[in-house]
Amino acid sequence: MKDYEELSEKAAEILMKQLESKPDSVIGLATGGTPIGMYRQLVSRFKREEISFARVTAFNLDEYIGLGKEQPESFYSYMEHHFFGHVDIPVASRHIPDGMAENLEGACEAYESSIEASGGIDLQVVGIGQNGHIGFNEPGTSFQSRTHVTELSASTRRANAKYFDVKEMPEQAITMGLQTIMKARSIVLLAYGHEKRDALAQLRTGKITGSFPASCLHEHPNVTVLYGEESEGEG
Ligand code: GLP
Q: Is the pLDDT of residue 35 over 90?
């Protein structure tokens, strides 16, 4: 059991090790509350000149449909604010699905092709939703899915409503598919807080089922799960 700082440090170390062994790694990145500490760690290591991301290519898992880059709730803004805006990943090497694309299907296909053209993801960071979603792959999503448009479940919308100033949060998103995530050569899953306890317990049963998307990870040979909880009296 880890506290939030430990969890974030451990996650940052896994990323650092990946970049030490392969400075031009392709990394898959996640948003949400959980990875903020990891990004903070990476930014301070970058500022201390312990690490460079200059040769990295990054692909984010997902983006809301209908939110422009300038909107603070978009994952584009999140990434600028927490990570991209502070490190040296070249702008052309930062990829986030375009939730404002006129042709959403085309944008999904292009995203998938551009991951393939980069040589594939070396290390993918994912979080987990209370219903077992990874990226925005909600329960029932095919394990064969590639980057696609998805309807957000009521549970996901409730959990993420806290990040929204706007009353109406989006109902759809573009997300890497479960197959896209599974093709990554290694995966690190980050989960923090008591509200993720049930999801982690379900994951630990080892049962693989479409009604709990994260369970597909049991079929992947190289997954690290980092879980932490508030200590008593906190949070
Ligand atoms: C969103 C993201 C997921 C993330 C999840 C958990 O739904 N699309 O990628 O894993 O939130 O977020 P949090 O870390 O805020 O609990």
A: yes
